[in-house]
Design a protein that fits this description.
Structural class: mainly alpha
Order of helices and strands: HHHHHHHHHHHH
Helix content: over 70%
Radius of gyration: 23 Å
Largest sheet: none
Number of helices: 12
Strand content: under 5%
């Protein structure tokens, strides 16, 4: 419905899905999966470390944003990207042999927490809170994890000035006077109205950011010319209709099913602890993304889609390893049976 807005995004996301197909084809070993996670950690972690240092130097007063002209240039998007990356940092830390590397990664996690806070993103803060709770729940050593979380989070909170606390208070006290909250409600209603009118195909990428489209489907009394969706769910609903939203949710549900299967099967296999831990950390990342994303327009973020693909590749590796173990066990049993028969003879 707004081709001038959709064309660039269509090309961009087609490139993303081409990348995902390549990842699925090439990430066929532990080394390659580990390298892929490491690239994500370095790429996003750079902003986490940099933003944390800026936050400390400014006493939490400088609102930090991401790289210009990128998908994480917006402060809210950067916060969500870092929330997704922090659990991956922890996975790399868990399997780094060098103690100095482990210390650097732990420090990077702490700085990344500060960066999420100094973005002043309420959605990012919600994602950080959920991610922390999921991280504690998925931890093998819950008491130790609780201490680590406290060490990382409490100093970060103490750093933040009063204006940050005032902004976070609006999460609980959303009201008729909260213009930001009301604008989100208007965006969500517009996306819903658009999907009802176009349930199969929706309006196309960023349709609600077209003044003509927004004006046609916006709620009565809304004087705004256009708005972003401000929610991954309503973003997909407006862009792709109810069919597209169903497919979107099924993609993440398939990732969840893969992660559960990896954990269940990997726990019974020696030497596959790394696969279980990686799956758990991706679960933590997804929890933060799915909660924080409810208030942010970041539905097509390539890192989260890459993690879904990683889970598919990881499950394939676990199944292959399980078959090898079963084959080895069967061969060993057959050799033992032959040995017994020879002894009897």
């Amino acid at each position: 419905m707004a081709p001038y807005l959709a064309e660039d995004l269509l090309i961009r996301y087609l490139k993303t899905f081409f990348l995902l197909v390549m990842v699925m084809s090439l990430a066929n070993s532990r080394l390659r999966l580990h390298a892929l996670i490491l690239v994500i950690v370095i790429s996003i972690g750079y902003f986490g470390v940099y933003g944390g240092l800026v936050g400390i130097i400014s006493g939490g007063n400088s609102q930090f944003t991401g790289a210009p002209s990128s998908e994480i240039s917006d402060n809210n998007h950067l916060a969500l990207a870092i929330v997704v990356t922090i659990p991956l940092m922890n996975y790399i830390r868990m399997y780094s042999e060098n103690k100095y590397v482990r210390m650097i990664l732990l420090g990077s996690m702490g700085l990344s927490v500060i960066t999420v806070l100094v973005t002043y993103s309420r959605g990012g803060f919600l994602g950080l809170s959920v991610m922390g709770a999921a991280f504690w729940w998925r931890s093998k050593h819950k008491l130790v994890s609780l201490v680590v979380i406290a060490v990382l989070v409490i100093p970060a909170f103490q750093l933040m000035p009063q204006k940050w606390w005032d902004r976070m208070d609006t999460i609980e006290n959303a009201s008729e006077e909260d213009a930001s909250f009301q604008s989100r409600l208007a965006s969500w209603e517009t996306a819903f109205n658009l999907a009802v009118a176009n349930p199969v195909l929706g309006g196309g990428f960023s349709a609600t950011q077209s003044p003509a489209v927004y004006g046609q489907y916006k709620p009565s009394g809304d004087s705004t010319v256009m708005r972003a969706a401000h929610s991954i769910y309503f973003q997909v609903l407006g862009d792709m209709g109810f069919v597209g939203l169903t497919i979107f949710l099924m993609i993440f549900f398939s990732g969840w099913l893969n992660s559960v299967a990896i954990i269940r099967q990997g726990n019974r296999m020696p030497g596959m602890e790394w696969a279980v831990d990686l799956s758990k950390m991706i679960q933590v990342s997804m929890a933060g993304y799915l909660v924080a994303g409810a208030a942010l327009s970041m539905a097509y973020y390539d890192v989260t889609l890459t993690l879904i693909v990683v889970l598919a590749c990881l499950r394939t590796l676990v199944v292959q390893e399980s078959k090898k173990i079963s084959s080895a066990g069967a061969a060993q049993g057959e050799r033992a049976k032959l040995a017994v028969n020879r002894n009897l003879e």
